[in-house]
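Milestone M4 deliverable, item 7.
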Amino acid sequence: MKKLLKGIKGLFRKKRFSMSDPILQQEDWSVHISAAGLLASLAAFCLFLLLLAILFVAYTPVLDIFPGYRTSAERTHDELVQSVMRIDSLERRMNEMLTYNENIAMIMEGRTPVVRTPLSENDTVKLDKTLIPPSEFDSLLRAQMEGDGDYSLARTLQNRAQGDGRLIFASPVEGIITRHFSRDDNYLGVGIQSSPNAPVTSIDDGTILDVVTGVESGTVVAVQHFNGFVSIYRNLAQVLVTKGQSVKSRQVLGYNAMPEVGDKTNPLFELEIWNEGKPVDPEIYIVF
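Output delivered:
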């Protein structure tokens, strides 16, 4: 233990370190330093060299001269290649989206869609169009839609017309007709006795012409349909649509009025249908 302590103290004991000229027999330079101080100086010098080397490598192209190390030009080239690959991938994706949109348009027009395939293994941009053969299920669906079956488009259109060719609209509400169309009595619609708060629906697709509130017969809604038809719904207690809104057939417009608004002499719900500015009998166009 004593030897160890003596050795540690010896590291911090200063000694004279000098340089002398053997020819002139005289001392040129000398310094007093301990062994521990000499080691600390060497460590600081090595650390300084390490920091200097890091800065030199970081801010100069010195590494480009070493074999096996990628130069800045090679790294830039790799980045350009990656960018070109990404652009090519985006272009292929865009072409796929365009093909999809074109196929949808062709299907809507009744034509056969196409599929695009590369002309060669190395060409990912130039694409060729190849007809897609219809599948068995596609052929069956086309036969059902174009034939005379239950799902035929022609049958669907025929179901909307009577024998004389007049269109048939959907019934707006469930109930019993208590008052019929009469020009003599100046009653230009039909009165339907229905349940209070029963949903009232549009007889066909159209656009809301107007919504009038605060009248004696409750809220009134007018809907513009195709071919110059306008339907008017009276005695509504609550309306779910606004002026200018598009509606679909059987879409709920509002709810039937409460009993205090109408009775059997003044039905709870009234429907009028006008065509080209003239009132027509709703019972001709609707099967209630």
